[in-house]
Amino acid sequence: MRQLQPVRDDLPRVCDLQRGRRRGDRGGVVVKADPAGVLTGAHYLDGDFACGEGAMAAGCRFVAGYPITPSTEVVERISRRFPVMGGTFIQMEDELASMAAVVGGSWTGTKSMTVTSGPGFSLMMENIGLAAMMETPCVVVNVQRGGPSTGLPTMVGQADVMQARWGSHGDYEIIAMSPQSPQEAFDLTIDAFNLSEIYRVPVMFLMDEIVGHMTERVMIPPAEEIEVIPRALTAKTREEFLPYQINGKPTPEFARAGDGYRFHTTGLTHDERGYPVMSAECQETCVRRLLDKITDNVDEIVRFEEEATDDAEVVVVTYGITARVARLAIDMARRRGVKVGSLRLIVIWPFAEKRIRELAGKVGAIVVPEINYGQLVLEVERCAGGKCPVLPVSHGGGSVHDPAVIAEVIAQAAAAAA
Amino acid sequence: MSENKVGTRTDFPPTPPEFLPDAVSEHPPEHPVTPYLRMERIPHVWCPGCGIGTVVKCFASALERSGADLDKVSVVSGIGCSGRAAGYLKLDGFHTTHGRAIPFATGLKLGRPELEVAVFSGDGDLSGIGGNHFIHAARRNMDLLVILINNFIYGMTGGQNAPTTPLTAKSSTMPFGNFEEPFNIPHLAASCGAPYVARWTCLHIRRLTWAIEEALDRKGFRLIEVIAPCPTLYSRLNKLGTGLNGMRFYHDNAEIRHGADTRELDIDFQKSITCGKFVDEQKPTFLDRMDEHYGRVLGDKYVPMPVEGGWLQ
Ligand code: SF4
Fold it and tell me: Which residues pair with B150 in a beta bridge?
């Protein structure tokens, strides 16, 4: 068995990176985590458990889910820990119900999450659209497996990347992120909750089966070192408050059910009162803003990690577990004398379009290994816009890539570019 | 917030008023349920003679009589003609996806247990596409008041067959008459364990109001089925006349049998409709059971979710 490359210790942890960046964003509206949800210390956890711990540290106190491999350990962890911290887990009758309950739960101000894998993710799509339309903060964890259909329930896949972006009908924007290790599963889950609060969108947490099931050391800091963005409740009176009035901000102010605002919200196209209005003009203002609140803030949301791209002839773009496999391939190619750099996407959607455009103008080729037959590579190709060739290294799932195959493609790309 | 407590429960069932005002003024007084409605959204979308508006009115009157704190009442609807009800009631209102009103309401209840959550939707929404959620919420005894308006048809999409369409009745997708066995809704709820099950028609305005008032006072999964006319589609396709003809039919054919065996509550095409309260019992709800169980197993370590919702900051 080939050893996976360990995550490099000298790189700053994602959580640290975000903390620096986030402070400015919200003028100090960050709070320390609730100690009840934080299991401070060094642990050996698999990615699923680490994700569950991240959610509890982020303040999540309502989880509705339906069992599906390989995601179930997340809710198993949560169902064991919630009763001692004032949280409720309910195993719903199916994924449609789970996602609907999460949207309902979030409207009470309680941070809410659901957990699933590919086929369940498909079933959640209708209510993910509802969450997007109602602007409901929530987190949807998808531990990806091989597909389509029932596919490979216990084996790895990365083929839900496009489903995460486009799965529900209509136009909307979401945020999707992908961890490469259990440590990141912890750190990034907190980040996912924070981003969902800032932009009032469902955040897709795209793990893959291997990250979900690999066990590594996970450092959980003390509660006072974890910064959490709380639900920002409106301070307006009932008379002044309109649920979808924005006043120049990217998102409207939030009122939770039961606080006396007696607001209305709907999945229909609505005006700022939340009332349905069936017109092209209302569709334009209502839906346009759902897109703008993300697209106008791409620089704040996008996170990636770059290595040796300054003088690279070839750049490898990766995410999730493939990033760690590709690291071996990159080392092999370097030993063969290829100048190869790496761009690891931490946030997948919105896409790191600007950076990929820049890189495409400088390098000879971009190589995109991913565990599917070509999803994210299409987006890279679009951004490269013909400035350099973009080579997929496709793999249908069930295992990770053979690094030698990626190394070979890197070498060929370098030779062709020279 | 005590100023929101409107009406107080005094006598039950109430004494009817002794006289009706006969003055027809040019400026009629405000309708008593106006404060419960989003008047800026009136006129509503429902057809003349439709039964849904009557049920909304009964719900509003029941809220007034119950003395419930309206700030804490949420109403959740799915999709369809009845699904629009959440948009007209001046409460925290959620108009959700087709069939998913019950799980959405479940999230609201569990996210903030102090809320009184009412689900107000149609037969197609709750028993067709949402059938699975309906039976599981009843099985768990989730603390929801479910008002299911049964007009035997899919109204908003144009009169297609519903899981409640009586045998031989016509619908736009059963143009030669329905041959599928319909649901007996009260029996479905009761057999899944619902502790409060009643059925009324739109003609039974007072009884329906009292039933809703009574159900607001209970806990657990409370189902009230309301038989409502859909003159635009069901009655037209079946040549049953106007909304008024529907009311006359209820008047002549509704039979009140409290405590009737729910197995006998099937509705045949244009035959009698059994109404009444069929089940009314006390049972621990999902949250009662959860608290009791964790309290017993975990003792002092158990931290229930605060009634006002999960950790905010
Ligand atoms: S179509 Fe039928 S149910 Fe719908 S509003 Fe009209 S009468 Fe009522």
Answer: B227
Interface of B with A in 3-62 (CB under 8 A): 4, 38, 41
Residue B7: partners with Cβ closer than 8 Å, 6 or more residues away: B64, B65, B66, B67
Cα A313 to Cα A337, A418, B182: the distances in Å are 11, 8, 69
Radius of gyration of chain A (CA): 21
Q: For A146-190, what is each residue's pLDDT tens digit?
A: 999 999 999 999 999 999 999 999 999 999 999 999 999 999 999
Single-letter amino acid code for the residue at A75: V
Cα distance from B104 to chain A (closest Cα, Å)?
A: 4
Q: For residue range A198-228, list pLDDT tens digits in order.
A: 999 999 999 999 999 999 999 999 999 999 9
Find the closest chain A residue to B94 by CA distance: A265
B110 at A interface, C-beta within 8 A: yes
Q: Six-digit token pair at A255? A: 């009122």
How far apart are alpha carbons A157 and A396 in whole angstroms?
A: 7
Query: How far does the centroid of ligand 1 lie from the alpha carbon of residue A101, in Å?
Result: 28
Q: Chain B contact for A112, CB < 8 A? A: yes
**ipTM score for this prediction:** 0.94
Whole-prediction pTM: 0.94
Q: Is B229 on the interface with A (CB under 8 A)?
A: no
Q: Which residues pair with A43 in a beta bridge?
A: A218
Q: Which residue has the tokens 């609730």?
A: A34
**Exposure string for A268-287, b = 16+ CB within 10 A, e = fewer:** bbbbbbbbbeeeeebeebbb
CA dihedral of residues A314, A9, A370, A175 (deg, nearest 10): -110
Q: Is residue B99 predicted with pLDDT exceeding 70?
A: yes
Do residue A262 and residue B96 have CB atoms under 8 angstroms apart? no
